[in-house]
C-alpha cells in the first residue's frame, strides 16, 4: 500500500535522481571536453537527430572543443586519424557495432552489415567479399553493365536539353539499376527507363527507411509482429523484387547472388534475400546522393573552372583510357567524397572489455564511440587547408598525399569499411565521364543553396529539398 502513496513516489524519484546524478558526477568520461549538459543527458543530441542535423551539430562541437568531444553521458565523438585507426581498424575490423544497426535487420535476419561482433561479421564477409573485389567489378560483363547505364543516363540528359532535369531522382534510379545489375544480372532493374514499378521500388527503399529512424520503437514493434511470418515490412515492393530476383537461377557469375547460391548449405533463401536487400539499399542513396551533391557543386560558378578542367581531361583522353586512369576525374571524385561524404555521420561502436585509451583519453568499456566522415575530413587544417572549400586540385599535389588519403573516411575504414567501394567508384567515374565529356551543367535558376543543404537521414545524407534541378547544354564541338 505504501508503494501507492504520493510521498513514496516523491522519495523514490528523489533517490533515483540522486543516484543518477552521482553516477554522472563520477563518470570517467568527465575529463573529456564537451558541453556541460552532455554529462547528464543525451536529449540535446537526440533533438538534433530528430531535426536531421546531428552531423552538423557534432561538427560544431568539434570546432569548439577539438577532435575529442563528449556528446552524451555515455557517448564520445572523435575526429582524428589515430581514433579512426583505433576504433575501426584495431585487430582488423575494430570495435563491435552497437544495437543502432538492428534498425537495418531485414526479414528478421542479420546480414554482413548488421552483424554486431567480429566473428559473425568475418564469417559472412568471407563468403561474399570476392564479388566486390576491384578485379571482379572492372571485368566484363560487370563493368559494361554499368557503362551501359551511364550511357543511358547521358541520353536522358540529352533529352532534357532546353529544360531541366531532377538529378536527385534520376541519380537514385541510376544507382539502383547499377547495384541490382551487380547483385542479380540479368534480373537487375531498369528504372532509368521505366516509369512504373522499378521507380516505385527505388523510391520506397530510399524514402521509407526514415520511418525506422524517427520512430525506432514503433518500427521495432511492427517488425516484431511481422518477423515470425517473414513478411515484407515498410518496403513491400522492394522486398518482393529482391525475394524474386534472389531466387532466380541462371544469374551471371560476377553477381553477388551467384556467390550466395553457392553457399546455400549455410544460408537459407531468406538469408540470401536479406543480404541482397541490404546491399541494394546500401548502394542507392550513397552513390546517388554522393553524385548529386558533387554534380551540383561542379555546376556552381565558384567551381566552374573545375568543371572545365574535367571536360578538358575527358575530351583529350583517348576512348581506350580506362575510367580509373584519369587523374583529374579521380581528384574530382575524391574531393566530392571528402566534402559531401554520402555517409557523413557517426558510425557508432562499443568500447571493448577493459576500456581503451583513445586519443589520449581513457574510455571505459561499453561507452559508445564514433567518428564521422564530415568532421574527419575537415578538422585537421594542416592536411586539408580551407576544409569547406571544394578544391579537387588538392588531390593532385604530391606533398601531403599520404596524410590526405589516410584521413579519407567516406567509405569508413578497416575490415568493416564499405565493401561496395570499388563498385561505387566505378559507377561514379563512368557516369561523370559520360556526362562531362558531352555536357556543361548549370544549376536551374529555381534552385537555391538552402535546397541543397545536407539533411541527415538514417545512415546517409541527402539534399534538404530532395530535389536538384540542373540544366544540361551540349559542349560545342571544335572545328
Ligand atoms: C559513394 C558510395 C558509397 C559510400 C560513401 C559508402 C559508404 C559506406 C560506409 C561509410 C560504410 C560503413 C558503415 C558503417 O560502419 O556503419 C559502408 C558499408 C557498407 N557498404 Fe557502402 N558506401 C557506398 C556505396 C556502396 C555500394 C554501391 C554498395 C553495394 C553493394 C555498398 C555496400 C556496403 C555494405 C554491404 C556495407 C557493410 C560492410 C560491412 O559491414 O562489412 N556501399 N559503406
From TrEMBL:
Q: Which UniProt keyword terms apply here?
A: Heme, Iron, Metal-binding
Q: Name one GO molecular function term.
A: heme binding
Which cofactor(s) does the record list? heme
Q: Which domain of life is it from?
A: Eukaryota
> Key word Heme present in the record?
yes
Which residues of this UniProt protein bind heme? 418
Keyword hit for Nucleus = no
Q: Which Pfam families match?
A: p450
**InterPro entries for this protein:** Cyt_P450 (IPR001128), Cyt_P450_E_grp-I (IPR002401), Cyt_P450_sf (IPR036396), Cytochrome_P450_monoxygenase (IPR050121)
Q: Can you say what this protein is called?
A: Cytochrome P450
Q: What is the lineage of its organism?
A: Eukaryota, Fungi, Dikarya, Ascomycota, Pezizomycotina
Amino acid at each position: 500500500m505504501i508503494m501507492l502513496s504520493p510521498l513514496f513516489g516523491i522519495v523514490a524519484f528523489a533517490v533515483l535522481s540522486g543516484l543518477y546524478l552521482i553516477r554522472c558526477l563520477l563518470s570517467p568520461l568527465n575529463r573529456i571536453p564537451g558541453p556541460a549538459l552532455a554529462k547528464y543527458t543525451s536529449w540535446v543530441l537526440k533533438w538534433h537527430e530528430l531535426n536531421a542535423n546531428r552531423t552538423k551539430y557534432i561538427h560544431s562541437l568539434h570546432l569548439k572543443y577539438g577532435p575529442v568531444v563528449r556528446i552524451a553521458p555515455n557517448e564520445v565523438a572523435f575526429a582524428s586519424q589515430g581514433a579512426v585507426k583505433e576504433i575501426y581498424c584495431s585487430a582488423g575490423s575494430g570495435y563491435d557495432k552497437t544495437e543502432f544497426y538492428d534498425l537495418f535487420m531485414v526479414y528478421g535476419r542479420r546480414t554482413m552489415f548488421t552483424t554486431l561482433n567480429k566473428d559473425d561479421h568475418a564469417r559472412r564477409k568471407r563468403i561474399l567479399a570476392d564479388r566486390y573485389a576491384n578485379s571482379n567489378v572492372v571485368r566484363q560483363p560487370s563493368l559494361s553493365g554499368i557503362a551501359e547505364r551511364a550511357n543511358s543516363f547521358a541520353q536522358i540528359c540529352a533529352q532534357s536539353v532546353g529544360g531541366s532535369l531532377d538529378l536527385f531522382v534520376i541519380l537514385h534510379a541510376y544507382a539502383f539499376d547499377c547495384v541490382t545489375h551487380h547483385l542479380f544480372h540479368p534480373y537487375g532493374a531498369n528504372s532509368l527507363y521505366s516509369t512504373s514499378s522499378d521507380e516505385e521500388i527505388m523510391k520506397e527503399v530510399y524514402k521509407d527507411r526514415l520511418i525506422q529512424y524517427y520512430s525506432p520503437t514503433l518500427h521495432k514493434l511492427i517488425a516484431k509482429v511481422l518477423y515470425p511470418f517473414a513478411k515484407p515490412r515498410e518496403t513491400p515492393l522492394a522486398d518482393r523484387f529482391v525475394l524474386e530476383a534472389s531466387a532466380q537461377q541462371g544469374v551471371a557469375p560476377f553477381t553477388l547472388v551467384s556467390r550466395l547460391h553457392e553457399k546455400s548449405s549455410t544460408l537459407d533463401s531468406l538469408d540470401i534475400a536479406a543480404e541482397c536487400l541490404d546491399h541494394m539499399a546500401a548502394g542507392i542513396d550513397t552513390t546517388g546522393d554522393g553524385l548529386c551533391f558533387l554534380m551540383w557543386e561542379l555546376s556552381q560558378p565558384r567551381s566552374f573552372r573545375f568543371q572545365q578542367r574535367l571536360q578538358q581531361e575527358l575530351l583529350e583522353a583517348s576512348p581506350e583510357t580506362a575510367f580509373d586512369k584519369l587523374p583529374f576525374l579521380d581528384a574530382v571524385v575524391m574531393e566530392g567524397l571528402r566534402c559531401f561524404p554520402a555517409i557523413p555521420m557517426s558510425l557508432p561502436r562499443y568500447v571493448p572489455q577493459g576500456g581503451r585509451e583513445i586519443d589520449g583519453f581513457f574510455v571505459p568499456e561499453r561507452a559508445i564511440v564514433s567518428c564521422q566522415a564530415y568532421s574527419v575530413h575537415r578538422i585537421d587544417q594542416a592536411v586539408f587547408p580551407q576544409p569547406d572549400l571544394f578544391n579537387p586540385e588538392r588531390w593532385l599535389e604530391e606533398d601531403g598525399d599520404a596524410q590526405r588519403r589516410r584521413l579519407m573516411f567516406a567509405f569508413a575504414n578497416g575490415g568493416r569499411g564499405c565493401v561496395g567501394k570499388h563498385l561505387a567508384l566505378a559507377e561514379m567515374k563512368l557516369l561523370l565521364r559520360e556526362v562531362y565529356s558531352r555536357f556543361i551543367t548549370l544549376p536551374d535558376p529555381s534552385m537555391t543553396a538552402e535546397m541543397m543543404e545536407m539533411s541527415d537521414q538514417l545512415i546517409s545524407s541527402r539534399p534538404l529539398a530532395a530535389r536538384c534541378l540542373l540544366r544540361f547544354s551540349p559542349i560545342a564541338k571544335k572545328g
